[in-house]
Amino acid sequence: VLSMCGLAKEHTQARDQEKNPWHVTISIRRTGRGFEHCKGALVSEYYVLTAAHCFTIVDRAEEIQVTLGENQRFEVAAVRSHPLYQIGKLKDRGIPEFYDYDVALVKLSKKSGLEPGQPIRWPICLPCTAGTTRALRKPHPQTTCRNHEELLLTIGNVPSFFVTDCKHEDQQAKGLSRRTVKIRNSEKKIGCEADAKKASQYVNVTDVSQVVTERFLCTGGADPEVDPNTCKGEEQHLLLGHPRNHNRGCLCGLVGVISWGVVDVCRNRKLPVCETGRNRHEGSPAYARDFHINLFKILPWLKEELRDEGLDFL
Ligand SMILES: CO[C@H]1CCN(Cc2c(C)cc(C)c3[nH]ccc23)[C@H](CO)C1
Fold first, then answer.
1. pLDDT at 243 (0 to 100)
2. Measured in angstroms, how far is the CA atom of residue 261 from the centroid of ligand 1?
3. ipTM, two decimals
4. Strand (E) positions, 70-192?
5. Distance from the CA of 12 to the center of ligand 1, in angstroms?
6. Dihedral through CA 268, CA 272, CA 276, CA 279, nearest 10?
């Protein structure tokens, strides 16, 4: 079955949830400390993709809930972090957190698309599947995985966006807003990655490649204009603005999973204003960069874990 991914209402009258049906909230009950939250992306009928660091080794599936849209709750059958994710791997070198391979798949206990009376929850397309070929309006099966990477990740500043909770200025209602960022590729990449050393916990990092490995994409900074930054709890996904018409996210599909940032701009934990993005830490420093796991670098794991989901991997 050709997974009907990336189908969402794009017209301006559509409600936030209809524009971003794949955007989910993951709530983890921590005994004595209430709930912690992360964001995730529905990538098939049963699976949500998110960051592995949202979970600890003791979290059990029973403690985790996934909410689609405003209030459609799902229980979780299993959480599978990438086998090479090991946040404490460099502790003995004075590097407290290491985010390499920071991705996890959360399996829902029932299919996400079949609730009577609920809107269809279209998943977002994964790279190197027939769905992304369709979203890119390219011929199938002639278009290869390499073509996807060339189309989506080669030019210097790749227009992309992430989705964040926000509140509408007037009626204080909660909404979702798309925050446009540029993936710093080719010549912009070096400067972007170098700022990782400004993170408070990375004072002992001598060579930035110790913490920013091949698996990462880098966004943020102020060149040519200031990019919005992510906050803790917004681990989720980076979508792609269409390489040609930058003004509209083309639902070309998932490219990365937000993993960590140098500065947590939501210190005051107030939701940003939907229309303007105000309330974020005003005037983030130019070194406020964000790092995302590049899905093109973890395809074997994705294909293996999602082999029964009918996603037609290329
Ligand atoms: C290397 O040291 C830093 C790692 C990241 N940490 C927090 C964090 C996480 C965990 C996840 C996301 C999505 C974040 N976006 C912005 C900050 C932030 C703090 C920085 O504030 C210390």
1. 45
2. 4
3. 0.94
4. 72-81, 104-108, 157-167, 174-184
5. 32
6. -10
